[in-house]
């Protein structure tokens, strides 16, 4: 981070003093505690600064090390919202912004004082093999001190989520607990100053250590009552003083007791709740069922609660009960939860979240099998919400991944781009380097555990006697002003990746030892380290456990007599060393009432597919059974269900689900004319979902390709979406012969072609990229038709497959098709980036009209990539302020309803009404002008277009509107037999008693389509539109051949001399007569 101009304001506050709030322009960060008694860090420099940079500076001032600073964030007490790490502040805007540096990500029972709640700890190297490992502390001492100061502030100012006190007994308990916490407060001061409780109490009254509402209540009590309370407190203080002298507790113990007491007093301490205006829950399918929708409506609202121990939960509550909670209140207001709590319903835990999308105040949370769409009260609150989920995900699931681009921390992006690890401890560094020992000359780059502006390059140090790794050598990399330098080397680099790539050509020297670098170990998906917090009883459940082939048992064995082969056409084809048959599986006996419906059959039957291993390959029977057993133990919407195994003599059979529409590659070739980009994106997303699920289970598929993806639902009918399922992988890649592996190029990953070792997850990442390219190319890849020597040479030369036209998609696919397996993105990243491409709002510019630019957008309020393509026309900003009548006419035009007029869906404004965006239906073939220039159309089809234009204009005139800009460029083509009139930027309304409209405003005019009275007198009428239609008809019949340019004076002179457009060559005489009558003066 570049050095900023910070001014530090150190204020010592006594009980009689209040802290002076800065009034200068800039960003001022309040610190609840610091070793040097600093209370404000002020950024007053003109340059912008991110929230992450402010947090790092605050953490440095407090003494919090890099491992723990991710628990903290910046809070705005005025808006009651948190800032995401990538938020950019602009201090030069002339405003004074006061922010609080607070611990936001909180794990209850980190102190292990509560036996009724699960313990939490950071992972250690032993945690990977020993589930009962105690782990490392969640917090360091500086973080504990800061949390204590923050908790005291919240307790006294009543900012914690206190439950409603419903009885005198509960109120009495609250008072006693408050006094007990006040005693702990004073004990902490006594230990810090080396004084007795009595001396501390003389300087700091216990009244200042209890909630303000309780202190106010005491001040209003009678004198005798106050004296009795003071006497009781002083007596307790003497008892505590004696205990302190006897047991000698340390500062951390006192703090832990205080936090534990606060957790007991407020069961939801450390959690955050958000009131939402709309909540909709739905399944993984692209369409949400009506009963899954939970719209708050006018009478009910919903709350979401996020907690480190329970994940994301929701509940419904009455609107009259809803309040804004957990905000800083004035001293006169007593903070207390007034709404009666309804039962919280779990939605998902952090490991279940795949992706989060945001659009303004709308948030869509996608999980493996569910979806939650939320509308918050503001975009700032929406970002506050998703940054909370994103932060907890990195603390509990994957320390190097982010769920949403809009809130991604800059350092996480930097680390991901350069393959950097977080501030992991040395034992994890050594452990990872040992894992990579097979890869010679590997290194690892991580952030320093002590210094925010330093990285550490770790290189394995081999023992000279036996060659085993004894330790590792560390080299420091300095990071300053976006420049990286290796200590002892003057060379500067713009990225760590550039530095390490350069080091591959050098030898590192340290004393008499020499080191070389050939590869860098990147973080792996979900890799365990001390960066992650282990939640006992929550993590490691059955839903997230990995599957290992070595631990599998044969299951779901099916009796052969329950399989009924279809006698006609039962052989469906061939797999790898298998025959594929269609059959029916008896799944149970029916009751008597159902026999008539099943034609008297006594058994229920379902259609299945049988994969029978060829008898000549009995040597791989165990591998066949292993694969079938593995696939039968995973279940996902986009995986073909494996019913089980059956053995009939020498026949080994795998029984799996029948999928109706067959292989994806065949379907793509057959239906390519009907498939839209949206259809293909949905299919790619579903495939990525399945592979991400397998990756979380530790399962590598090994045979991902279009042929192995089956189509369960076409998704070509109106209102439907496709559904695909990934089939079983068949025989494992490492068992195939060399020729079979070469045949699978380009789907097989390059590292699998010559290796007999089991394939890794990187193989699926490569195969997914190729399959996505196959989907883009309608089921065909040029390389698939090559000979085996050509395929082999292609990989040896590290060839590149043909990229799609979309730049974003090309970059995405190229990441998958890296020849270095460790550089391929994890599936969680692939799925996130793919969804981002899907829901990217602005796709490309369509045209530039007379009044504005037209752009293609996807209208997708659900943020799930299933929206509708629309054309959005923005009024040119250079045309000055928007006239009010323009907006009024737009509001009228959007209600037009005719087959041959483009449907307007509405309009919206930006920049305080200075920019208007008109939303209309999207017609894929563009303007009729460009369409006719590219397509050879018959005269009859051209006349059909002209007839439809006449029908649309007749409807428009019946509503007493004139178009004023009728031309082939403003006619849009939906398909080969339908055109629609568009671009009403110049249209005008003709009142009932008038016959024309005189234009007074200046502006660009399409003079070559205007009648003479329009050019000379600015008079427009229904007849002037008829003239424009005559010119448009001429354009259509000449296939829009560009006319010779001329200025308006020459054009008027020609028209006055009765010169007209020449007759098109193939124009029928009847049409010529019509054109002549139209173009009369």
Structure, explained:
The protein is α+β, with helices and mostly antiparallel strands and 1081 residues long. Helices cover 30% and strands 23% of the residues. It has 26 helices and 46 strands. The strands form 13 sheets. It has a six-stranded mixed beta sheet with strand order 1-3-2-8-5-6.
Characteristic terms for this protein:
single chain, 1081 residues, alpha+beta, SHC Adaptor Protein, Phosphorylase Kinase, domain 1, six-stranded mixed beta sheet, 26 helices, globular, disordered N terminus, repeat
What does the largest sheet look like? Answer: 6 strands, mixed
Low-confidence stretches are 1-6, 9-17, 285-299, 322-341, 540-544, 841-851
**What percentage of amino acids are in beta strands?**
15-25%
Please report the total strand number as a whole number: 46
Outline, from the CA principal axes?
Answer: globular
**Measured distance between first and last alpha carbons:** 73 Å
Number of helices: 26
Number of domains: 6
User: What's the Cα radius of gyration?
Assistant: 36 Å
Structural class: alpha+beta
Helix content: 25-40%
Mean pLDDT: 80
Strand order of the largest sheet: 1-3-2-8-5-6
